[in-house]
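Q&A log
Question type: sequence-to-structure
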Amino acid sequence: MNVDNVKSQMRKGMLEYCILLLLHREPSYASDIILKLKEAKLIVVEGTLYPLLTRLKNDGLLSYEWIESTQGPPRKYYSLTSYGEGVLSELESAWDELSDTVNHLRNELLTIESK
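Response status: OK
Response body:
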């Protein structure tokens, strides 16, 4: 088993959910999204983020607005649509279930190991 590959797949699987969580708080510029993900230890490069944002927009989860910048050209700020909010709610439920399952299994293993 290639552990690095598994870890990479786990991060990729969570990326959409994490982006929706960030945009639930406030509309954001792509560079701000990358910075916030990096602060959370989820490293993403522009070459990964931009196609994902485009796909989420095309799927109706995101919209964007061009906003003038004081430091250069206008910036595209992404925000959740009402459909995106609904999908986020479903993903939050799925995350809670998955997290509960993993925690249950880990706790069961720790209990067995401590005996």
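Response note: Strands lie at 28-29, 62-67, 75-80.
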